[in-house]
Every structure is written in C-alpha cells, then in structure tokens.
C-alpha cells in the first residue's frame, strides 16, 4: 500500500483531540483544538477539524493523497453504516448530523464515525489492555456507565446502533434509583461515580459503625473517590460500599462473559483509577456469578490507555474497517 496516513478525531464537548497515525497505528502527531459548539448543524465544528488537519499537514509536509481515511468519535448515538449522529447534547447538536457526508464533502478519502464508548473499546483492543485479542469488552465507569463490545475483531453495533449500551442493563433488581433513561435499577445508577454516591446515601442511615466518611456525608460533599480512598485505608463502611459496587459490575461482567465470551473484560473510566481495590473485588464477584466454561482464560483487567483510548480507537476505525479488510 502506498497510502500510509490515518487521521483521527475524538470530538468531546470542550476539546477535539486530533491525531495523525501511520498505517500500524504509530502516532506521528497529537494535538487538540477547542470544540466549536456554536453551530447546531455541525458544519462549523467539522470544518474546524478539517482546517486543523490541513494546517498540520502543511507544516509537517504530509500529503493528503497519502491519507487512507479519517476516523471520528462523537459523544452521541451513531448510525454506523450511514455515519449519522442522532443528536449530541454536549456538542449542541439537537438533531441528526451526517458527519460522514459533511466531512466527505471536504476530503477525498473515506470517513468512518462511531460513538465515544465504542471507539474507546476499539482503542484498548488495538493498543491497550486488549491487545492481540479479537474478543474484548470494555466497561467505562465514569459519571455514567458506557461500554463497547468487540466481537471477532469488529465493534458490535446491533440493528439500530444501540448495541453495547451497557449502562442500562438492570443489575439492581430492587430498583432503588431512577435512571436518566426512564427506567430504574440500571447499572449506571449504582456503579457510576454518581451511583457510588447513591449507594452511600442509601446505606448510611443504617450505619452503626464509625466511618471516616461521616463528615463528608453530612456536608453532602462526598465523591466516589472519597469512598475508594477510605476503603483503601480500611474504612469498613467504605469497603462495604465498594463490595456492593463490585457485585454489580461482576454481575454485568458475568452476563457479558456468557453472551460474547471475551478474552478480556476491561474496566476503564474515571472510577477505574481506584485500581486494584475495585479490580480485585470485581474479580471475586465475577467468579461467583459467571458460568464456569465461559470464565476460562477470560481476564478482567484495568484499561491502559486512559483518556487516549478514544483517539487511538478513532484511528483504529480505519485500521479495522479499511486496512484490515484489504
Ligand atoms: Zn438506564
């Protein structure tokens, strides 16, 4: 192949991370621009991304004829085949934006678009914790819970693009907390950063032991990080909460392990920064829940790429869907 460059854009609510990679996903250039949310049609934002690539290529003496394709990640639901984003609140896109068509008006090479959770999973599959595996699941534990499933090397999109919306699997069957999706008991309500706080307020009235969290609970300033930090220092109530969270995540992991039999189940997002205390508790819960044959050689691991998973995965779209198809 003579063409050897990949353009990648990970579009977020405040910044667009941009990258130029070679055909083996080696990163040649890495920078960011401010996200232009002034235009609800998306045209301005995408024009800004295009201009940034043109300027950078001029500077680096890269030729547009050498570009294999551009991968784009967006924070909203995507029709993968069409490259259409069905609205993105953080970008001020209230209705459909055909990202693929708008970008392809400006460039000669193909453009592939997917949502941020899916590209993060693909990034971990290519260069992160899921390297050398074709079957990988990533669970992103942030303000909400997201996910991506890579099956047989490809992202699972499902018939209307809502495949792998892992945050809305009901794990709390008693449905203590309402979810943004309109239902209740979704894993997002009990195992996201906000979910941790939900659990703290639910269980603390029953608290009979001393806990170092008490002052933060009373002042309503408690965060998920406080809970994990206290658990690490041996606080019994915090350990109880961490075990609860781990049970929910372990239960989700057991469902995923039976449905897709991944080589790796990768825990990422801000909450995964808690590290081994979360990982070990999830592993324990998972081993209790999961069907034994599907557990064999499946590893639960922490994500490796952090915030870089998205940009790597955006480039990974071109690697997976164009280069590896040839
Ligand atoms: Zn939900």
From TrEMBL:
SUPFAM superfamilies linked: Actin-like ATPase domain
EC code(s) of this entry: 2.7.1.2
Presence of keyword Ribonucleoprotein: no
Gene3D superfamilies attached to this UniProt entry: 3.30.420.40
rRNA-binding among keywords: no
Alphabetical keyword list: ATP-binding, Kinase, Nucleotide-binding, Transferase
Record InterPro entries: ATPase_NBD, ROK, ROK_cs, ROK_glcA
Pfam hit, one: ROK
Entry's transmembrane regions: none
MF terms (GO), sorted A to Z: glucokinase activity
EC class of the enzyme, as a word: transferase
Family indicated by similarity: Belongs to the ROK (NagC/XylR) family.
PANTHER family: BIFUNCTIONAL UDP-N-ACETYLGLUCOSAMINE 2-EPIMERASE_N-ACETYLMANNOSAMINE KINASE, ROK (REPRESSOR, ORF, KINASE) FAMILY
NCBIfam families listed in its UniProt record: ROK_glcA_fam (TIGR00744)
Protein name (database record): Glucokinase
Organism: Staphylococcus americanisciuri
């Amino acid at each position: 192949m003579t063409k050897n460059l990949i353009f990648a854009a990970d579009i977020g609510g405040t910044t667009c991370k941009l990258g130029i990679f070679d055909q083996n996903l080696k990163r040649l250039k890495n920078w960011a621009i401010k996200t232009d949310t002034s235009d609800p049609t998306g045209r301005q934002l995408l024009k800004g991304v295009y201009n940034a690539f043109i300027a950078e290529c001029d500077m680096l003496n890269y030729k547009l004829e050498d570009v294999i394709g551009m991968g784009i990640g967006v924070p909203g639901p995507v029709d993968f085949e069409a490259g259409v984003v069905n609205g993105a609140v953080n970008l001020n896109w209230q209705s459909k934006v055909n990202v693929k068509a708008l970008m392809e008006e400006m460039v000669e090479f193909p453009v592939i678009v997917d949502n941020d959770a899916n590209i993060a999973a693909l990034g971990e599959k290519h260069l992160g914790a899921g390297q050398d595996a074709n079957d990988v699941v990533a669970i992103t534990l942030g303000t909400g819970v997201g996910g991506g499933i890579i099956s047989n090397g490809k992202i699972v999109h499902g018939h209307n693009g809502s495949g792998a919306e892992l945050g809305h699997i009901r794990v709390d069957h008693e449905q203590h907390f309402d979810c943004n999706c309109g239902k209740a008991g979704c894993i997002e309500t009990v195992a996201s950063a906000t979910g941790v706080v939900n659990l703290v307020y639910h269980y603390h009235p029953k608290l009979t032991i001393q806990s170092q969290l008490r002052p933060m609970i009373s002042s309503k300033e408690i965060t998920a990080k406080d809970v994990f930090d206290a658990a690490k220092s041996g606080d019994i109530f915090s350990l109880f909460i961490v075990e609860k969270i781990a049970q929910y995540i372990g239960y989700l992991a057991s469902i995923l392990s039976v449905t897709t039999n991944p080589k790796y189940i990768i825990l990422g997002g801000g909450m995964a920064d808690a590290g081994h205390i979360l990982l070990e508790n999830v592993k324990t819960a998972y081993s209790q829940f999961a069907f034994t044959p599907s557990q064999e050689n499946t590893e639960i691991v922490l994500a490796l790429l952090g915030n870089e998973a998205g940009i790597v995965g955006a480039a990974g779209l071109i690697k997976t869907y164009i280069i590896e198809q040839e």
